[in-house]
Specification:
Blueprint: H1 9-18, H2 25-56, H3 64-67, H4 73-81, H5 85-99, H6 113-120, H7 126-136, H8 140-145, H9 152-155, H10 164-176, H11 180-193, H12 197-209, E1 212-217, E2 223-228, H13 231-253, H14 264-279, E3 293-298, H15 299-304, E4 308-311, E5 318-319, H16 320-329, E6 332-337, H17 355-365, E7 378-382, E8 397-401, H18 402-410, E9 414-418, E10 421-425, E11 437-438, H19 440-444, H20 448-454
Parallel strand pairs: 3-6
Antiparallel strand pairs: 1-2, 3-4, 4-5, 7-8, 9-10, 10-11
Helix pairs in contact: 1-2, 2-5, 4-5, 5-7, 7-11, 13-14
């Protein structure tokens, strides 16, 4: 009797993928998850080998990389993987942290055990692991465990006062269920929570000094504009361009924009031209384009200059004193948390949300409640439709971008507010258990309940 042929696991998975055309949607998604798990398992092997190569690469020209003609070990790894040097560096960092010895693995499994466990189980990509490790190593407990100097000002920050284990668990658990883009926003929030405002101001000064813009005419007559801007310099430009894009998208959607719609990149180019014409003498103030810059900051932080606030469309939180200066010197709307300047709730008789209500809902959702698109890309929609008796008030409003609003209605997702935070409930066809999924802000930042639970005085 001929022996039964046993396929290699990768070959077996390849066979199933090649036959996936006939799978139901749910089974196809499950197969994709299985393929990703296999890829992450392979990444762990490559990362471990990268760490071993790094351990062999001593200093000077006698090192392993030098003997093979490379300037450094990351260049050698990149040559073998066919990827970039930055990707090779991330693989080496992950492999060293997970599998290196205590002396050559700062921030390793002994310091960040939950992060290491989730990575070894294949629930974190290399990119997520490196981002989380870098920011969590700013925590004073982590620095202490690695024998590094701890600044008392860092220990006094919002997250520095909490035990490392609880901050780590809170951050890693959010990252496991989130895409990389969302994790980058989460890391920005963690960075701010572990950075004293005075240090944040120094870091911002470095960004400001690094601002650059160049203008060059190409041989064919086109003009190339290249700029890298600090957040406060970029904020009004981004607000103007976002408002211009939103107006143009609506015009083409309503049939008022011409036969062929330009690409978003072409619309931004048109928006820059519009800004230039306006600056050189256009008497039309804004051509019906909303260009409001909105900052969001707690009242105490605005008064004292401590803490951090945010600007719509900018991922990185900024020190409160900088935002206080910005609000005073520029034409911006400071949304001060914890205050109400007017009546914001309206009854069922009002179908459209007022500008004040929009600002209040934008403060809660801070953009699209699902994907995080900036408020300038969004509209306020009724959770319970107005025609079905839904009131036009804050508890029945949610901010969504056009794309998310479309698929939520198309696929019949439900939305609810729980403790003032949006939750999205998938239909049974997507999740038979219909487990509620947190909104964007709950995925990228520690909630008040999580911070309370994680506090040293709170429950374990």
């Amino acid at each position: 009797m001929a022996p039964e042929l046993v396929l290699d696991p990768v070959d077996a998975l390849r066979v199933r993928v090649e036959a996936a055309d006939g799978l139901a949607d749910w089974d196809a998604v499950a197969l994709m998850r299985e393929a990703v798990a296999r890829r992450r398992s392979t990444d762990l092997v490559v990362a471990r080998m990268a760490a071993q190569l790094a351990a062999r690469c001593g200093p000077g020209r006698a090192g392993l990389a030098s003997r093979h003609g490379f300037a450094g070990i990351d260049q050698l790894i990149a040559a073998e993987t066919g990827g970039t040097v930055a990707e090779a560096e991330r693989l080496r960092i992950m492999g060293t942290a997970l599998y290196g010895g205590p002396d050559d693995a700062p921030g390793g499994a002994t310091v960040l055990p939950h992060l290491a466990c989730e990575a070894r189980e294949g629930r974190l990509s290399v990119d997520k692991f490196v981002l989380l490790r870098e920011v969590l190593m700013r925590h004073p407990d982590a620095r202490e465990m690695d024998g590094l100097v701890v600044d008392d000002a860092v220990r006094a920050t919002a997250l520095g006062r909490l035990p490392l284990a609880r901050v780590e668990t809170m951050a890693v658990d959010k990252a496991v269920i989130s895409p990389l883009r969302t994790v980058r926003s989460l890391v920005a929030q963690l960075h701010a929570g572990l950075t004293p405002p005075s240090t944040g101001e120094e870091e911002y000064e470095e960004l400001y000094l690094a601002r650059q813009a160049t203008v060059r005419e190409e041989a064919n007559g086109m003009v190339r504009l290249v700029a890298i801007l600090d957040p406060l310099t970029a904020a009004p430009l981004m607000a103007a361009l976002d408002g211009y894009l939103k107006k143009q998208f609506r015009a083409y959607r309503d049939g008022d924009g011409g036969a062929v719609a330009p690409t978003p990149g072409q619309m931004r180019a048109d928006g820059l031209g519009w800004l230039g014409r306006h600056a050189t003498g256009c008497r039309e103030p804004h051509d019906a384009v909303k260009t409001t810059v909105t900052i969001r900051i707690c009242l105490d932080d605005l008064k004292t200059g401590h803490g951090y606030g945010e600007i719509d469309g900018i991922r990185r939180p900024l020190p409160g004193r900088l935002l206080g200066w910005y609000a005073a010197d520029a034409e911006v709307i400071p949304t001060v948390l914890g205050t109400r300047g007017e009546v914001l709730d309206h009854g069922h008789a009002e179908r459209l949300y007022t500008p004040a209500q929009r600002r209040a809902i934008a403060q809660r959702d801070r953009g699209c409640a699902w994907c995080g698109a900036p408020p300038s890309h969004c509209d306020v929609h009724h959770i319970r439709h107005w025609v079905h008796g839904g009131p036009t008030d804050l508890d029945n409003g949610i901010m969504l971008c056009v794309a998310c609003h479309h698929w939520i209605h198309r696929d019949q997702w439900a939305i609810r507010l729980r403790h003032g935070s949006p939750e999205f409930i998938p239909p049974a066809a997507i999740d038979p258990h219909q487990q509620p999924r947190p909104g964007y802000q709950a995925r990228i930042r520690p909630t008040h309940a999580e911070l309370t639970a994680a506090s040293r005085a709170g429950p374990p």
